[in-house]
Write a structure and sequence with these properties.
With 255 residues, the chain is of the alpha/beta class. 44% of the residues lie in helices and 12% in strands.
């Protein structure tokens, strides 16, 4: 038996009312959740906290990378006669050793500022035994006595028994080139056996390239050696840097 039209209409009305009630309840609940937090249905900061926890967990699993700094080139500077004797002594009491030390100190400051590690060594320093560095330069000055008008200028020498003549020749060429440019002093050709047989050449590690420089004569070159020491130190410093960084330099034909 079919239901009458009057019986089906109230049923449809009830269904529509229920749907309408559900809609409004949903709208009210959504409003309440939105009022609870502007970010949605989660409490304020909950999402950020979850993200942070995951990030911290991910970061803790990553290995820490420690940057490895590039090694700084090491250079040794021997202060001629320091800790041994006075060297050449002038009539007014000026000593070669104090001139050498003042110049060597400036050289060290220049090289440290340029990014090198520098050891300031005494004449007979125990550290010279098997001393291992990129280069070693011993700083000296020449006689305070007047010889003649030709007793002026600088000298650079290295051991004749070197096992690395190419490197040694380049260090000598760099020192000649840069020192002459910085000071304007001429090169003096009288290289003595005391220079080529300098004791430190036989004491240091064979891999250490070494040279000795006589910065000038304490008689005719006294002014630049005592009053313009920054120029003297600049010439030696730039000569060493020329060697360390493989820069161009030409050795004079008659050093």
């Amino acid at each position: 038996m079919k239901p009458s039209v009057r019986e089906t209409r109230p049923a449809r009305v009830n269904i529509l009312r229920q749907i309408w009630v559900v809609f409004w309840v949903g709208a009210v609940m959504a409003t309440l959740f939105t009022a609870w937090t502007p970010l949605g249905i989660f409490p304020i900061g909950l999402i950020d906290g979850i993200r942070q926890a995951f990030n911290e967990e991910d970061q803790s699993e990553l290995p820490l990378i420690t940057p490895t700094p590039r090694p700084r080139p090491r250079v040794g500077i021997v202060v001629g006669h320091w800790g041994s004797d006075s060297g050449t002594v002038c009539e007014d009491g000026l000593t070669e050793q104090e001139v050498n030390q003042e110049i060597a100190t400036l050289v060290k400051e220049n090289l440290v500022a340029a990014g090198l590690d520098v050891d300031l060594l005494m004449e007979n320093d125990e550290l010279l035994i098997q001393y291992d560095a990129r280069a070693l330069v011993s700083i000296h000055a020449d006689s305070c006595d007047y010889v003649d008008i030709n007793a002026t200028g600088f000298k650079v020498a290295a051991t004749l028994a070197t096992t690395t003549p190419e490197k040694t020749g380049r260090l000598v060429a760099c020192l000649y080139n840069r020192y002459q440019t910085a000071t304007g002093l001429p090169s003096h050709g009288s290289i003595t056996p005391d220079m080529t047989s300098y004791h430190a050449f036989n004491e240091i590690n064979p891999n250490t390239t070494a040279a000795i420089i006589e910065t000038g004569f304490l008689n005719l070159d006294r002014q630049i050696l005592t009053q313009n020491q920054s120029q003297v130190a600049q010439g030696i410093s730039e000569g060493i840097l020329c060697f360390i960084y493989n820069q161009d330099a030409e050795l004079p034909s008659d050093p």
